[in-house]
Design brief:
There is one protein chain. The chain is of the alpha/beta class and 164 residues long. It has a single domain (43-163), classed as Rossmann fold. Helices cover 37% and strands 16% of the residues. The chain has seven helices and seven strands, in the order ααβαββββαβαβαα. It has helices spanning 19-25, 28-37, 53-63, 106-115, 130-138, 149-156, 159-163, and strands at 40-44, 67-71, 77-78, 81-82, 96-99, 120-123, 142-145. A hairpin with a 2-residue loop joins strand 3 and strand 4 (81-82). Helix 4 packs parallel to helix 5 (130-138).
């Protein structure tokens, strides 16, 4: 699962981040490192409803070979996996915390990700919390914000380019 593609992201997703923030939080090398080094993804806000973005992104990432750990306090199982109420209750190492929660929730989620010694955090498309992202980076976590994990995986795996 090595991602060598030379593209960064030819699709303009109309980010509300400044160009400098995009350089920091849409960094191709950071995205490549996350995709190459991740095996286990805790999806915070994973919904059991198949029409929700969190569900189809998690389903796709699982089909691409990643282990998905649902984090949703209102569910027992999602996608056939045990769901956990929070990151702290997960009994194994988390490589990536993928966040599908409102921006206002991100700071506390990232504080918990730091405590759990996650390797990286990913705030999904249109989820922007600069304070939380800066905290994650200061703690040494690889950080992506305002990008879709599924789209980036497909871009770096050239799935989207092969269809064009």
């Amino acid at each position: 699962m090595e991602f060598e593609s030379s593209i960064s992201c030819p699709i303009n997703l109309n980010s509300s981040l400044t160009p400098g923030q995009q350089n920091l939080y849409h960094n191709p090398e950071t995205i490549r490192k996350i995709l190459n080094n991740t095996r286990t993804i805790a999806v915070v806000g994973l919904s059991a409803e198949p029409h929700k973005a969190s569900n189809f992104v998690a389903t796709y990432m699982r089909s691409a070979g990643y282990k998905i750990i649902p984090v949703n306090p209102g569910a027992d199982t999602i996608l056939g996996e045990q769901a956990y109420p929070n990151l702290s209750s997960i009994p194994e190492h988390i490589d990536l915390v993928d966040i599908f929660r409102p921006s206002a929730d991100c700071l506390n989620i990232i504080k918990e990700a730091i405590t759990c010694k996650a390797s990286a955090v990913w705030l999904q498309l249109k989820i922007i919390n600069l304070e939380a992202a800066e905290l994650a980076q200061q703690a040494g976590l690889l950080t992506v914000m305002d990008r879709c994990l599924e789209i980036e995986h497909k871009l770096y795996n050239d799935v989207l380019l092969k269809r064009a």
